[in-house]
Amino acid sequence: MARMLRSMVGALALLGAAGCASMSAGPGGGAACDRACLEGTVTAYLDALVAGDPSLLPLASDVRFTEDGHDMTLGEGLWASDVKLTDYRLDILDVRQGVAAALVKVEENGSPDHFALRLKVENGAVTEIETMVVRSQAEGMIFRPDALVTASDAMRYAPTSAERNTREEMIAAASRYPEGLKVGSFVTSDVPFAPDAYRFENGQLMAGPGCTIFEGCTNIKTQTVPTLSGLKYYVAAVDEQQGIVLIRMDFGPGSMFPAAGRPGGQTLSVFEAFKVWGGEVHAVEAFMEGKPGDEPLGWEPS
Fold it and tell me: What fold is seen in the domain 2-135?
């Protein structure tokens, strides 16, 4: 009870800061949520989740909430569990679009989860809440929560002004990755990987220096990758200051195979973060889980 009360007080304080000190005039006179505001909104969401009380959030009257692609009422899903935070959290803050996203490791009823979150903030209120909760290897195909201690140095690196690329350049570089999966080759799509680029999937090193998961995986660009011609994707957030592009993907047919505890006909739903600066992709980190192949991600652009 004491922990819940502390979380509630902390969330209210953060909401006050996000709603007042960090709001600025946006285009057309509307209120824009700056970096501090977006970061505070993520923190407030996580604290409210721990408290199990969505009323602590500044919600729009028509807010939409999904977990694993399914529309739910706030308070259901992960909200109904006993949730604790860990030290692993990677924020992707898109000031231009008013989007705050995060990859987080939480504990649910004492067990670790990989938790992906995307919030849309408009005029001080949260209008969209998209979440994904990966609870096991059966759900995620790969599941290494023990490897997620804190956000990686590569992702936390702050590019200098000279190293930063434009928003459009970042999107173009990151988008070559899903295009490479569609044709089965990162060489063909010419992803501009840095020499030491790597990829983590659900905590497992799957490509780059030190990779031992399969032969040839130490080179992310030339490693063998599946041909996922049915892959669909869109850009969910662009953190122009930190040089991170978050892409939502449905890997499509052939991306997930039947296994114990996992039905056939599933595809991988993916939150994939790309660290882009100096014209190169330096790191790729993803949370992913299986979903019914005939179901959309739930937030595809119209």
Answer: Nuclear Transport Factor 2; Chain: A, (3.10.450)
> Scanning the structure block, which residue is given the tokens 């999937």?
201
The CATH code for residues 154-292 is 3.10.450.50
Residues 6+ apart with CB under 8 A from 247: 174, 175, 177, 178, 233, 234, 235, 236, 270, 272, 273, 274
Gap between the Cα atoms of 182 and 139, Å rounded: 23
Give CA–CA dist 63/82, Å, rounded: 23
**CA dihedral for 135, 139, 144, 150, sign (positive or negative):** negative
* Max intra-chain CA distance, the chain: 56
User: 143 pLDDT exceeds 50?
Assistant: yes
Q: Can you tell me the distance from the alpha carbon of 152 to that of 91, in angstroms, rounded to the nearest whole number?
A: 12
The amino acid at 161: S
Answer for the pair 80, 67: CB distance below 8 angstroms, yes or no: no
Domain map of the chain by residue range? 2-135, 154-292
The predicted-structure confidence for 275-297, as pLDDT tens digits, reads as follows 999 999 999 999 999 999 999 99
